[in-house]
User: Fold these one by one.
Assistant:
Number 1:
Amino acid sequence: MSILSKLNTPVMYLICGSIVLFVAILCVIFALRAYRQGKAIGMDVVRMRRVITASATFAVIPSVGILLGVIALSGALGIPWPWLRLSVIGALHYETQVAGAAAEATGLSSLSGSEMTPQAFVNIALLMSVCIIWGMVFCIFNCESYTRRLAGAGSEAAKKKDKSVKKGPNLKDFGDIAMTAMFIGLVSAYIGSYIGSWISKGGIFSFAGSPLPLAVAVAGALAMGVFTFIKEKWNAEWVDSFSIAGSMIFAMSAAVFLARVI
């Protein structure tokens, strides 16, 4: 039996599916409690139902990106494990990046099912899990104090705004800046690796290296730029729900097309 066959056995589906089901039940419980609490504090029931309907509707298209991630990873890791990772706590950009890095660290030339071994899968799965658990761990011990500080920073900022006093960034500003800096660093690392790989194989001055990864990255960036333009030009906030999935689909389509051209 091949490694992919083992990773797609009913036992794997049972283990991963049980965890996904447990989390789904928790989501339903919290949603019901939130709805009941909204009624208890006097919120408009009709408006709450509209919010629920709108949220469910706008959650469909962004989830396409997650589905694409499951499909992309399933060729090397089977279906149950990527399904679990991207259904519970994983993020698409994180899972694909860490899985690829772990595959290279274990000696695989690429993240592919043809090269996958049991030892490589264990290392990949362990790294994908351990590296992302710290948000939950920190929340257990620090979430309450962080929430109090966040609320205090917000009230202080409101007071300063009323007094027309502008000082350094508050805690909310720092969070936004930190996330932006993290993503800029992540994108820069990817772009740098694409350019470095292309040049090291003789790119620009010869056809030895393939510019395909860089071209696909540019295509995805252009698609995201179009979504951002639409959002800012016509104040269409709803575009945010479609931008990531739409950019991914466009970039993947560009990859298929450019692979035949380049």
Number 2:
Amino acid sequence: MTSVRPNPVKTTLDAGGTIYSSSVRLTDPGLCEILGYAGFDFVLLDGEHGAMDPSSIDRLVQGCFAGGTVPIVRVLKNNDAEAVMHALDLGVQGILIPHCRTVDDAQALRTAALYSPEGNRGFGPARGMKWGRVSSEDYFREINDTVVLLALVEDIEGVENIEEIAASGLLDVLWVGTGDLAMAYGYPGERDHPEVKAAAERILAACQDHGVAAGYPARTPEEAVWAADQGYRAIGFAGAEAYVMKQSRVFLDTVGR
């Protein structure tokens, strides 16, 4: 029997472990390959803020697989079932939606991403079936269990509903969106404002109470260690483009340019 591609992110989360990720906004698959070889568990393909269309997502997925990492897409519209289906048909192994505010938002993602009877995803896989190498019977038996579902909680409404969202058990990861939360509370750019921190703590507590992994965007390795110590089990660290800029400036500042 030929099986579908396994998803080690899903396996790690189901076992109670911690996963680490980075992201890309540009469309060079080599960036994903490098992040995979570096050892990140998954690469977030940022379709909300990045320069991505289906053809570039297709290439980025191949870059992730070349580097041995899991491709997950952050879709532009959180309830766009066609965008979710198309990304999965291209071979991504997880979907992250922005602005999860209610249980209905979480349910909409699950419905779009999973096949019946758990969801209502349309049938049209290609890479997921290894281009026909995997039988339809094996594919349908296995594929739902390999899809990771993540959502950003980055609005006041989402924070207010977080206990209900976490208790629903619909998603694998609820990710603290500190940047947009700072905006929502009226403190643009102040990710460390007490209200933002309180919201993050509430999200983390709800996730821990209901056995859902909580995600956090770390800005430094030290913050990533802190987040893991707090109990976050999905930790993101900037993006490939940011690494290039930061290290370039370290070099040029050192040589006086």
